[in-house]
Design goal:
mainly beta; globular; Rieske Iron-sulfur Protein; three-stranded antiparallel beta sheet; 9 strands
């Protein structure tokens, strides 16, 4: 017995990628370089940072070590070539690109996609 070749074979179509929804949080001009602000998007506190070169980053505002919503008040800087924010409470340093804690690699904060559209800062959510 062989396989029937006249039967339609199921096709494997790739799953669609999740759609990103963009939420306007503020104007770029409203962000002070090297400082953070908190935005509430879909009930989630997000720390948004503008650097001197106008790059903008967004990470979760909750410090995973203390549980406090304070990362937006952290110290913006660099470690090596990584743009970072240092928690104002326990001084752990987080990479703004990846969200990983540089002092404790097993710990991270959520990071969010950011884009600038006509001078507005938008945060992306799947």
């Amino acid at each position: 017995m062989g396989l029937a070749t006249d039967q339609p074979q199921p096709t494997m179509e790739p799953s669609p990628l999740p759609q990103t929804y963009w939420h306007v949080v503020c104007e770029l001009a409203e962000l002070t370089p090297e400082h953070g602000v908190t935005a509430l998007v879909r009930g989630i506190q997000i720390a948004v940072f503008r650097l001197y070169d106008d790059r903008v980053f967004a990470v979760g505002n909750i410090d995973p070590f203390s549980g406090a919503a304070v990362l937006s008040r952290g110290i913006v800087g660099t470690r090596g070539s990584a743009a970072t924010v240092t928690s104002p409470l326990h001084k752990q340093v987080f990479d703004l690109v990846t969200g990983h804690c540089l002092d404790h690699p097993q710990v991270s904060v959520p990071r969010y996609d950011v884009r600038l559209v006509n001078g507005k800062v938008e945060i992306g959510f799947p």
